[in-house]
Amino acid sequence: MVPVRYTGVANPHEAFAGLKPFRETLIRMQGTVRPFGPDYLILEAVKKALETAAYHFTREPDFFSLKPQQSDYRAPPSNTGP
């Protein structure tokens, strides 16, 4: 597969990280309207579009999901001997 370069978004991770508060606001707004009603569904469409754009640019399918803290474990060095 050929690597794809985007000239319009220099740092997509940083760009979409800045949109996390917007996504959280959409989720809060969904909580104030009738579940699965027209208002809820249009907010869901906006949220899905944001998630799809984040995936397109970052190639991380769950970019906006909570991620557990990663450990600092590194594989032990190979034992090459003296």
- Weakly predicted, low-confidence segments: none
Structural class, please?
mainly alpha
Determine the N-to-C terminus distance. 41 Å
Q: Quaternary state, please?
A: single chain
Instruction: Report the major sheet.
Output: none
SS element count, helices: 3
Overview of this protein structure:
By secondary structure, this protein is mainly α. The chain has a domain at 12-58. 46% of the residues lie in helices and 0% in strands. The chain has three helices and no strands. The chain has helices spanning 12-17, 20-30, 38-58. Helix 2 packs antiparallel against helix 3.
Chain-wise SSE layout:
Blueprint: H1 12-17, H2 20-30, H3 38-58
Properties at a glance:
82 residues; mainly alpha; 3 helices; 46% helix; 0% strand
Can you give me a brief rundown of this structure?
With 82 residues, the protein is an all-alpha fold. Helix content is 46%, strand content 0%. The mean pLDDT is 82.
